[in-house]
Give the backbone structure.
Amino acid sequence: MTRLHDIAAHIDGYDTESLSVAAAQAFIAQLVGRVGEVERVPLKSALGRVLASDIVSPIHVPAHDNSAMDGYALRAGDLDTDKPNHLRVAGKALAGQPFDGHVAAGMCVRIMTGAVMPPGLDTVVPQELVHLGDDGTVTLPAGVVRAGDNRRLAGEDLRCGEAALSSGRLLRPADLGLIASLGFADVPVVRPLRVAFFSTGSELRSVGQALDAGCLYDSNRYTLWGMLVRLGVEPIDMGIVRDDAASLEAALRQATECADAVITSGGVSVGEADHTRAVMANLGEVLFWKLAMRPGRPLAVGRIESRGHQAILFGLPGNPVAVMVTFYAFVRDALLAMSGASASALPMLRAATTTAMRKRPGRTEYQRGIVSRSPDGRWQVALTGSQGSGILRSMSLANGLIVLPHDQGHVEAGDDVDVLPFDGLV
Ligand code: AMP
Ligand code: MG
């Protein structure tokens, strides 16, 4: 297993006192690897899970050449191209009920959408383009079809033996449908990642408890729980842990023994009552970074061990907005990689900011924004008001994160900025 300082040696611009977001992401990508075993689950239970091996099509989809329209199937070679054609109807082909008879030259077959093309016929003329006579013949004006029109070819969606989906795919609704179209009732997926998390701080109280003087309610466990569930991992909520070395060590050990990854919030900045850093460092290889970002300056990352069990550790800052921003900037991709999911970049919007933003080059900043369409149809984004890293309402009001890159300076109203939208379609 690669030691942490060996990874650091390969990261451009590695500087623990001011680590760029890009360098921290590159480090973490090298630290983590897929951990989960494989299990088979029924197709419907596979939504949001990670495919553990390629799905290879055992059949052609569609299995036969078939009609894309309601109309008449014919042989294009039989048609006169310069005058109307009269064809006799030899029979009919319905979806699920093929026509097996012989179709002589100059004849056609009534055919419905999805029905198998009768042998030898290659073209379908839509019913709207023909005239059906009283004598049972159809008349086509000259030139209304070309050979192959309105015919779907066997295997045009997927050929037998072709990989329909690759290992590492995070399964979405269309994928479930695709797997079903191949006839598979269950699929191999990676077992869900187990992620234990707790909040540190003697000032924290849990919902339902009385709020003593100088205390506040623990919100980080709820945002973390929500973000973890949305990611499809199995969250293990370990509650609040007081700022004392024995409690912190016991909690970290218990978490390491039951989970693949451990996430804590609070206690990683240098503060008097924070024993978190020392305890973490005792349990394995842990790095304490000062990130060149806002919000979310301190971050602990490493590998800890207890009684032969290992876990990846993320020690997030305590401030509620910093927890969410550092989760999306670093933890999300790491957990997906550990779950076996192939990397895919999140889509970004370019939107004109309605607010000027003061920013100095040399750190990445994440502002909370509300994206909307301007009257001329372009994206615009407004700040959600006060952007302090403890102001969780700024996150709750937002529908996207404005990402101001490392080298960016001040932003004027009307400038285009990158926005990471919170919501996606599927
Ligand atoms: P720390 O990094 O532990 O110094 O925490 C930074 C700030 O975040 C302090 O004001 C904490 O009270 C606050 N904080 C820490 N943990 C939580 C939590 N779980 N829920 C809400 N606020 C928190
Ligand atoms: Mg604290």
